[in-house]
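Notebook entry, structure prediction.
Reason for the run: the old model in the group folder had no record of what sequence produced it. Starting over properly, with the input documented here first.
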Amino acid sequence: MQYRKLGDSDLVVSEISLGSWLTFGVGVEADQARACLDEAFAQGINFIDTANVYGRGAAENFLGDALKGRARDSYVLATKLYFPMSENDRGLSRAQVEKQLDASLERLRTDHVDLYQCHRYDADTPLEETMEALTRAVDSGKVRTIGFSEWPADRIQAALDLTGVTKFVSSQPQYSLLWREPEDEVIPLCAANGISQIVWSPLGQGVLSGKYDPAAPPPRESRAASADMGGFMDRLMQPVVLRAVQELKPLAAEAGLTLPQFALAWVLREPNVASAIIGASRPEQVRENAAASGAVIDSQLFLRAEAIIDQAMAGADA
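New structure, fully documented this time:
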């Protein structure tokens, strides 16, 4: 496992990190989830990402229990706030930052998180109020560093322009061969200001695993077949896209990698990416994905992959 510095912070994180959306405390049995977590540590993964809203606290509760026997300084723990936790609890107000942080710490059974992230931008709360609340959280020792997820470039810049507040060190966007939007504005802005990317869905919600046959229905146990989860994937499940993904398999083989490893290595080719978050329901997935770290790939293979996917996505959007 290789490691990278997280923005301008003193945190060093594994290139592959373990996420908990749709898995821990919700979609995966506890014993299997623990096995995935144990395998992550065995593979050198030191970065665990969660959020208060995942299972409405269930993911944090699971991690609090599963991590309690490990030395606190042996892993980097990140969580988030913004999305509704109840009818009246949502957003990034001063009161919510204080309330949700304390609730997350209680569920996680720790006195601090290493990274506290704004899960989205809150247009209903003044940015100054949010940043001042986050700064107080850092000053209190409950939070080491702060970040955000899916903020537009103009709001990132607005936060950078504020004085007297703690600066963001991380951005968590969706980014993959199938979703390259952060390259336009977010990555250049962050790279110029000491903010690293922590990428979610680097496998395009599983599509870049190559498991979806364009000529057949999705496997019964897959995310695409789920009534709850498959709705996010309509654009990616078009036959033209699935056929293109199958065309990537020979490129991955030429690189000596599986397709998921190749897709993760493509994300990690970007210097501003500190870590790619994987989800897993089986330890074998963790082991396979972790092996993408440190892979040395001929850049021409990546260029060929980009051309294949770009053509397919243009067809999907037509």
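Summary: The mean pLDDT is 93.
The old model has been moved to the deprecated folder.
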